[in-house]
Design brief:
single chain, mainly alpha, two-stranded parallel ribbon
């Protein structure tokens, strides 16, 4: 409702319950008799009826028994009196029995002499003009000291024609420098005053209305720092947080035709600005701002109009939130799961004892997790101070967790301490090896299982020199080949240099020159070579070849790489040999090698050609043997020649065989002679045959007519 300053003055829930009871028992014909009345308290959200809460079933029974059922007290008396006043037009005699109503009015009159609020209520209840006039004068002459008194007076006198002249100076004072309420959770009061007297405020030209006009402006647009409206409010004592709060909340409780809708980018930007200001504030002025911030996070979780491409307000806030107020911190921390708030908003510097105070309201597990994530994220140099504070607030050293908790956030801290040389994994390995000598297997497992997990999470990846030193020590104790089994992993050493078991095996290998010396790289090569030989023997030659072709390998291993080249060069496949030889032979050696390789290729080419011609000769000969007579032989050879326009060597084989079968004056059918002559002349034209050979063949043929 936003009536916080009136909640300890009038029992508002009882007021609403009484009004509901009256309305439900009233004649519907009377509902239009008080249409102009603007209630300050509204209908509210009635959770439980008078009957359900107090077992009071009609208005008269409430007036008679409220002290014993509702607790009694001046706040209850004011609430019931105001309910009767606001619903006076709906009251009926049947709602009361005997003197229930007059007895209650008499009680109000007795108390009104000393109570301003009951005086106002009695003014509304009075049926006599003379009595009402006296009460009116009493209200006018009251010594106003609080904003709520001025607002209540304006509320009860709202139908009097001279009310504005009376309340104008009161509003100017009590919503300006004389204000006795904070804006937080009092938006209902602001909304009622501004809406009730909007026209009169707007028409007034005097300076005393600047503050009220500025408040009206808050509902319609984004009022930024430095604008006249902001300055007027600031000069009147409104804090930065109050202005932001009213600017955002009045839009929802005070209607205006000029008011931008919730889906406007103006409102979205206002919400974004307000959240940044409030969540980053060094100190939150009022606890009511905490749920207010949550409501903004909820309302603008998804934008209707994306600001700078962001889908919702959390994307815009991103890394721009640095919570400094501990009330805000706790509130947001407790809703971070529901609102899906970024974890990094809550990282703290636990070298500061004040930050450690969160341990007083967090569960130990929550604090430990937050402490760990913050430590790993911030990577402070003064970790000893962090751990001293942890021990002070948790009663134990953080380092004990490395033996007790296997969660990832503890592993991250372990990794950080290794990077900072505050944990020596080689010494831990030595301790394990020593325990292994005299502990039973089950005891050893119980003691070391979690710690081994922390160590394994680091040494499975060769990303630092500390990991290499661990591998080196492990090799001395157990042999590098046992590393996988020890930590329950697979291909640790091979993966370290990107020697993959499947796919592209060795093309992208790297031997960590950025963190290892040449001697250490050589040792790493020995380990990898051993693992490849054991695990992928069929790929061993490919591994050596790929290693020799790695970029920078000759620089890192000048002697070893050349020696390895000479060791394997004869065993490398022909498809890989050229690139390897080009990298490792001198210029003269490479030239001689190329010449020799070219000669080999030419000889092989020649031999293959001879084999091909010999095979062709056999094929033609076989076709000739299948021929029935000389005419068939001639046709077979002519057929082969028809496919040999560009292969003169094979054509020569055909003509050689033809010549061997042609006797002197050999008869050739005219059609066959034409085909043979055409092929022979064509070969002669392209230089494949000498003229003497052509003459020799033609002279042997005697053309006869085809049968």
């Amino acid at each position: 409702m936003g009536l916080f300053t009136l909640e300890d003055t009038i029992a508002i829930p009882l007021l609403q319950q009484m009004e509901s009871l009256i309305v439900r028992g009233a004649d519907e014909k009377k509902f239009d008799m008080q249409t102009g009345w603007k209630s300050l308290f509204g209908a509210g959200s009635l959770k439980n009826s008078m009957e359900e809460v107090f077992s009071l079933n009609y208005p008269g029974e409430v007036l008679e028994r409220y002290e014993e059922r509702c607790g009694g007290g001046i706040e209850q008396e004011r609430a019931l009196g105001l309910a009767l006043a606001e619903k006076k037009m709906l009251l009926e005699e049947s709602m009361f029995v005997g003197a229930q109503y007059p007895d209650f009015i008499r009680k109000i009159k007795n108390h009104a002499e000393q109570d301003f609020y009951l005086t106002c209520i009695l003014y509304l209840l009075s049926e006599k003009a003379e009595e009402q006039g006296k009460l009116y004068q009493k209200i006018l002459l009251h010594d106003y000291k609080e904003t709520r008194e001025a607002v209540f007076a304006a509320f009860v006198l709202q139908e009097h024609p001279k009310t504005w002249d009376f309340v104008k100076p009161l509003f100017s004072c009590f919503f300006g420098n004389g204000r006795t309420l904070k804006a937080y959770e009092n938006q209902g009061i602001y909304a009622w005053v501004l809406q009730m007297y909007e026209d009169k405020i707007q028409k007034c030209r005097t300076k005393d209305m600047y503050v009220l006009k500025a408040l009206l402006e808050l509902r319609n647009k984004s009022v930024k720092e430095g604008t006249p409206a902001w300055k007027h409010l600031e000069n009147a004592g409104y804090s930065r947080q109050e202005i932001i709060y009213l600017n955002l909340i009045l839009r929802g409780v005070l209607w205006s035709p000029e008011m931008p809708g919730k889906k406007s980018i103006t409102i979205e930007r206002m919400a974004l600005f307000g959240l940044k200001e409030l969540m980053n504030a060094k100190e939150i002025e009022d606890p009511g701002l905490l749920p207010f911030c949550e409501s903004l996070l909820k309302d603008y979780e998804l934008y209707d109009i994306h600001i700078e491409g962001a889908k919702g307000i959390l994307e815009n806030l991103g890394g721009n939130v640095h919570i400094r107020d501990w009330q805000m911190y706790r509130y947001l921390y407790e809703i971070k799961q529901d609102r899906r708030l970024p974890e990094d908003w809550f990282y703290l510097d636990f070298s500061d004892k004040e930050a450690c105070e969160v341990s007083k309201w967090m569960a130990p597990e929550q604090f430990t997790k937050l402490f760990s994530i913050s430590l790993y994220s911030k990577k402070p140099v003064n970790t000893d101070q962090w751990f001293d504070n942890y021990q002070r607030y948790m009663g134990k050293r953080y380092e004990e967790l490395f033996w007790e908790i296997s969660d990832s956030y503890v592993k991250d801290v372990f990794r950080l301490l290794v990077e900072q040389n505050k944990i020596d994994m080689v010494k831990l390995l030595e301790a394990y090896a020593e325990d292994e000598k005299h502990m039973q297997k089950e005891t050893l497992q119980s003691k070391w299982s979690i710690m081994k997990g922390h160590i394994g999470s680091i040494v499975r990846h060769l990303t630092s020199h500390e990991v290499y030193l661990f591998w080196e020590a492990f090799d001395q104790y157990y042999g590098i080949c046992q590393l996988d089994e020890f930590f329950g992993c697979r291909d640790v050493v091979l993966d370290a240099v990107k020697a993959q078991r499947y796919g592209y095996h060795f093309q992208n290998m790297t031997f960590k020159e950025e963190i290892l010396s040449m001697e250490e790289q050589a040792k790493l090569f020995d380990w990898v070579e051993l693992m490849v030989y054991r695990e992928m023997p069929q790929e061993y030659e490919n591994f050596l070849y790929s290693f020799l072709l790695m970029r920078g390998v000759r620089k890192s291993f000048p002697e070893d790489s050349v020696s390895l080249f000479h060791l394997i060069k004869e065993d490398v496949g022909e498809s890989k040999r050229n690139r390897l030889y080009q990298d490792y032979l001198s210029a003269d050696e490479w030239e001689a090698f190329q010449k020799k390789e070219n000669e080999k290729r030419e000889q092989i080419k020649k031999e293959r050609r001879q084999e091909e011609l010999q095979t062709f000769r056999k094929q033609v000969y076989a076709d000739i043997q299948e021929s029935q007579d000389m005419y068939g032989i001639q046709d077979s050879i002519a057929k082969h020649l028809s496919y040999l326009y560009s292969d003169w060597e094979k054509a020569e084989v055909c003509l050689e065989l033809l010549d061997s079968y042609l006797g002197k004056d050999c008869k050739v059918k005219k059609r066959t002679a034409g085909r043979l002559a055409g092929h022979i002349v064509d070969l002669f034209t392209r230089g494949a045959l000498k003229w003497k050979t052509v003459q020799k063949i033609i002279n042997k043929m005697e053309v006869v007519t085809d049968e």
